[in-house]
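[step 3/7] fold_predict: job queued, chain A
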Amino acid sequence: MAKGHSLFIADLHLSEQRPDITAAFLLFLQHKAIEADALYILGDLFEVWIGDDNPSPLVAQVAKAIQTLSAQSVPVYFCHGNRDFLLGQGFAKRSGMILLEPLTVVDLYGTPTLVMHGDSLCTLDIGYQKFRAWWDQKWWQKLILSLPLWYRQHLARKARRVSAMDKKGKTSDIMDVTPDEVPKVMAERQVQHLIHGHTHRPAVHPLQLTDGSAAQRYVLGDWYSQSSYLDVSASAWQLHFQALPQN
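[step 4/7] structure written:
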């Protein structure tokens, strides 16, 4: 039976170092998502993903929680982020998630809407886009996943350190979406609504497409200090923020 609204989240960056975020996510699944028609996770669910064979208790806990939601007739859709682009069909099957293409148009109560992680919109970050083009290739992903688990864990730790240092040397506009890229991508997909994450800058941005029509871009927030989600129904699109539970 339809419940009349769908939920969107992104950039939780779940890790063993932040059990408070995991606790907030589990509560969200149990008390918010269970009441929705569907849940869309638009990337970076995990801080890092080293492969579906990761034996981490956190991974098992999250898979079970999502599977429980899916088993209660709430489909869970997942779009890869830049932190968990190696997440594959193994984990999807284990958790009951449905994997989406990097750019997917969905019908939200009569409104065609483009959903994506959002990193491909940050075209001014030349260095990142070059790296993204590299790891987006299937042969490279297959090569990485063929490495021993312990070495993939080592590479993940190194990549996180490099990423943190790299961000310190970049200006705010470089790490945000490129203004001209947004209407271009939306026009190509013939939509007037876009939902994405990645930038950690939750907001609703009105814009004008290349044909002069009005459009809306909804940016999801991260979960470092609050649980941010977008609630979409036929009558309203609302961004929500809720403080994380205190330890």
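[step 5/7] annotate
Helices lie at 19-31, 57-70, 89-95, 126-135, 138-145, 149-168, 172-175, 181-189.
The longest helix spans residues 149-168.
exit 0
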